[in-house]
Amino acid sequence: MLNDMKKMYCEESDKFLYHYTKIDVLQHIFNDPNGVKVNLRFTDYHFLNDADEGIWFYNFLKNHKKDVVNIFEKENEREYCEFAIDNFLGYESYFYRLNEHYGKHYSFSLSEMKDSMQFWRQDYANENGVALRFNTELYKDKNNDLPYPVPELECVHYLGNDTMKQIFSEFIKIVTDEADLIKYKEEIDKDGEPIVDMQGASVLNRAPFWVIKNSVWKSEREWRLTKSVGALNRSVYNQEHEKSDFEQKFEVDEKCIPRYRMDIRNPFDEIILGPSFSDYYIDSVKVWLELHNYKDVDISKSLGHERRKI
What we know:
Elements: H1 2-9, E1 16-22, H2 26-29, E2 37-44, H3 55-63, H4 65-69, H5 75-90, H6 93-98, E3 103-111, H7 117-120, E4 129-135, H8 136-142, E5 152-155, E6 157-159, H9 164-167, H10 169-178, H11 199-205, E7 212-214, E8 222-230, H12 234-240, E9 248-252, E10 258-265, E11 268-273, H13 280-291, E12 298-301
Helix pairs in contact: 5-10, 5-11, 10-11
């Protein structure tokens, strides 16, 4: 299903994406004395701004099962669809994944929106906010040989009734292909369980819950760097990677939010200063970056002010 979603909505990201944050966070990101690496803080997806992330997909099927079933014209396809959804809703595997017994999913948020007042008004950028321009080509070129798996760049999928038919295209294909082959639920095996092909429920269970949001958030046009980390002893894992030049570690921050930090080679080629900054900050941020050995980074001001090359 994830590959199918990408085919529908995420064939290719824009060359430039943007990470909105506060200016005092720059010291934590641009912290390499050699000016080569940046340190990114990934957030446990349970602690992001949509409290229903992950569970929203499950609730969508639960609350709109009839709409999904009615996509199909043939009676046997509708029966199979309903049975597959019921099996998915009643099966614990999705919640097992959602609770991440196998591992943890962390994300670093980006957006297609450049110099967006929608983001400047958010609490993480409404005072002294900046936007870091993430160059996707630089990211791919510079980070293909890290000592650990490179975080994947994924688009967020915004689900709603209007996108249902496209989002569920793989599921629809399975229902159409297999509806004539299944043995219906009135046929019971010796243990009292229905004899049925579970492929339909399996397709639904593969949904990438860490990049699914309600369509009310669609205006954010969000992408994420995502990192799936095995559920193992955090302190031991940190110790195993202490010898690497590239740091990665777990932490719980001052707001008690689980985070995952890791170094990558710098993919940011511009810093946009938010509306609250005067023009004088263009030169002061330029000097700050020079003192920290970061070069080839542009500085610009929100609302169309002139850029200055470092």
